[in-house]
């Protein structure tokens, strides 16, 4: 995985808020052979100070604004982690300044800006330009996808996933950021967080051919729909339902499992970041479970893929087109809810089935990666 003899990418950080603190910096800290932070910027003094405090980065690497950062010759690539409404404009400036770009999700505040992201990528074919989607790189999801590719449950015919979790502003949490309370992007929490779920669904079930959606607003802390339910028809012929609810009141513990029913077995994806489980059952009632611990929701691997793209010309899995395809399922679902009609989805140019990421040069799924994977078998026969 390391790149002997190759200089680490000199990275500039644009925006040093919660995602950098909780997600990117922990990943970057473990990738010193691939990245060195040479500059950072954030309009908020407090955020800059906080970043230098926990990261140990030299405060002298702070720049006044993004123009100053983008003008530096010692910045090869930038990580853009600013509020959703500003992502596109910052990505435009960074590409125009000749930088390789890792931009946070989602690809566009609405369908029009999603198309603008695609056009932007097409306008800079020589640059590496990624809109991050860490779920494509999650160990449990890649393992589940490999099982499906191997025909472990036969032909998948039905996907069922209900995800419900209370969402209220919590100090220090993502829900605390004011820009998320009155979102200037269509779909609110469903475009911000739900887009990862759509990525998971696309990784496992393939592209969506048709969607019928409905929404409800039942959370006074978010000025957007809290509930979204989708009936889905996949291009491969399977059908499915995805229901997401982010209510204001506490709710009883929910399983939040995704279940995928096949002609020869069932795949169940369960758990949360600290411990994820993939259980495959067969028609003879045996189950095979793999537990994943110590992996990080894919943040490290997506930065490795970006570095491989910049340094070795590898085609990144989390391309702009793939992120646009995720965002467009949400946008089309909202169109469907507004029009009270089932709607077809147009294929996104350059997207197609999500490729399965493996460490570069490796045939295995986990070679050289951190984390524990423990398997066991059981039976649910009476
Ligand atoms: N992949 C994931 O799991 C995940 C999780 C959370 C957030 N995100 C994404 O990360 C991004 C940031 O989210 P967050 O939760 O860290 O928000 P945040 O508000 O905590 O941080 C954003 C930071 O950007 C700064 N900023 C605003 N405008 C800027 C500009 N023009 N130039 C430079 N800095 C600017 C703000 O001062 C703030 O410090 C969003 O795009 C979000 O979608 C991704």
Automatic annotation (TrEMBL):
Q: Where is the GFO/IDH/MocA-like oxidoreductase domain?
A: 142-267
| Ranges for domain Gfo/Idh/MocA-like oxidoreductase N-terminal | 9-122
**Is the keyword Oxidoreductase assigned to this protein?**
yes
| Pfam families named among the record's database cross-references | GFO_IDH_MocA (PF01408), GFO_IDH_MocA_C3 (PF22725)
- InterPro entries attached to this UniProt entry: Gfo/Idh/MocA-like_OxRdtase_N, Gfo/Idh/MocA_oxidrdct_glycsds, GFO_IDH_MocA-like_dom, NAD(P)-bd_dom_sf
Keyword Metal-binding on this protein? no
Any idea which GO molecular function terms this record carries? Answer: nucleotide binding; oxidoreductase activity
Its keywords, alphabetically, are: Oxidoreductase
What protein is this chain from? Answer: Predicted dehydrogenase
Q: Which organism is it from?
A: Amycolatopsis pretoriensis
């Amino acid at each position: 995985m390391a790149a002997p003899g190759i200089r680490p990418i000199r990275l500039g950080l644009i925006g040093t808020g919660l995602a950098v603190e909780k997600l990117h910096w922990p990943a970057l800290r473990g990738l010193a052979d691939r990245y060195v932070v040479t500059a950072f910027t954030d309009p908020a003094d407090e955020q800059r100070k906080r970043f230098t405090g926990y990261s140990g980065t030299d405060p002298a690497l702070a720049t006044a604004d993004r123009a100053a950062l983008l003008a530096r010759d010692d910045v090869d690539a930038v990580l853009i982690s600013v509020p959703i409404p500003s992502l596109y404009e910052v990505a435009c400036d960074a590409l125009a300044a000749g930088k390789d770009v890792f931009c946070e999700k989602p690809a566009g505040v609405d369908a029009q800006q999603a198309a603008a992201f695609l056009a932007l990528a097409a306008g800079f074919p020589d640059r590496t330009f990624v809109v991050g989607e860490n779920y494509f790189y999650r160990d449990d999801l890649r393992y589940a996808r490999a099982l499906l590719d191997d025909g472990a449950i036969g032909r998948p015919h039905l996907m069922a996933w209900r995800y419900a979790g209370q969402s209220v502003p919590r100090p220090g949490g993502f829900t605390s950021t004011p820009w998320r309370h009155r979102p200037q992007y269509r779909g609110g929490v469903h475009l911000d967080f739900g887009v990862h779920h759509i990525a998971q669904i696309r990784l496992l079930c393939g592209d969506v051919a048709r969607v019928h959606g409905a929404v409800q607003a039942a959370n006074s802390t978010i000025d957007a729909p809290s509930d979204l339910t989708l009936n889905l028809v996949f291009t491969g012929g399977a059908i499915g339902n995805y229901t997401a609810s982010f209510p204001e009141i506490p709710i009883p513990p929910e399983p939040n499992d995704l279940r995928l029913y096949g002609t020869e077995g069932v795949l169940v994806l369960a758990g949360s970041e600290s411990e994820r489980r993939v259980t495959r059952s067969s028609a003879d009632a045996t189950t095979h479970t793999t537990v994943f611990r110590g992996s990080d929701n894919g943040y490290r691997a997506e930065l490795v893929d970006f570095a491989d793209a910049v340094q070795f010309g590898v085609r990144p899995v989390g391309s702009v087109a793939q992120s646009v395809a995720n965002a467009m399922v949400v946008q089309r679902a909202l169109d469907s809810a507004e029009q009270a009609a089932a709607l077809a989805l147009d294929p996104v140019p350059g997207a197609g089935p999500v490729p399965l990421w493996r460490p570069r040069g490796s045939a295995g799924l986990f070679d050289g990666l951190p984390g524990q994977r423990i398997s066991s078998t059981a039976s649910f026969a009476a």
